[in-house]
Amino acid sequence: QVQLVESGGGLVQAGDSLRLSCAVSGRAFSTYAMGWFRQAPGKEREFIQGTTRSGGRSYYSDSVKGRFTISRDNAKNTVSLQMNSLKPEDTAIYYCAAAIIDSGSLYIPTRISEYNYWGQGTEVTVSS
């Protein structure tokens, strides 16, 4: 059974930084492309960042480009999201997700339906 556990959320002020982590267990971590999504109150869950199986390539949504950075450590089975210059509109529950991807593929899924496993989410609140 695959489990994803996020951590690192909290309450911060606008302009601050925060680092989220996601620990993955249950199957070879390197077989997954990994993604981060968020869901703000009253809004749909949205893709914000993803990375390939190896971590060699990433894809960012326009809303976080230049502020957020995704990284993964295949030796530790973790994926992280470094969030800088946080804004009140970044307030949301943040989810990590894992997608089973064919070996050698550089594809980064961006749709919810493409991901096989999800964490329970960690809440981030940015005050103005």
What labels describe this entry?
128 residues; mainly beta; 7-stranded mixed β-sheet; 4-stranded antiparallel β-sheet; 11 strands; 0% helix; globular
Give the structure's gist in a few sentences.
This protein is an all-beta fold and 128 residues long. Helix content is 0%, strand content 49%. A hairpin with a 6-residue loop joins strand 4 (32-39) and strand 5.
Description:
- With 128 residues, the chain is mainly β.
- 0% of the residues lie in helices and 49% in strands.
- It has strands at residues 3-7, 10-13, 18-25, 32-39, 46-51, 58-60, 68-73, 78-83, 92-100, 117-118, 122-127.
- The strands form two sheets. Strands 2, 4, 5, 6, 9, 10 and 11 form a seven-stranded mixed β-sheet that branches. A four-stranded antiparallel β-sheet has the order 1-3-8-7, with no helix packed on it.
- It is globular, with a radius of gyration of 14 Å.
- The model has no long low-confidence stretch (mean pLDDT 95).
Order of helices and strands: EEEEEEEEEEE
The main pleated sheet reads as: 7 strands, mixed
Provide the residue-averaged pLDDT: 95
Parts with pLDDT < 50 across at least 5 consecutive residues:
none
- Regarding quaternary structure, how should these chains be classified? single chain
The outline comes out as globular
Rg over CA atoms, rounded to whole Å, is 14 Å
**What separation lies between the terminal Cα atoms?**
40 Å
Number of distinct beta strands = 11
Class by alpha and beta content = mainly beta
- Helix fraction, binned, reads under 10%
Strand content: over 45%
Question: How many helical stretches?
Answer: 0
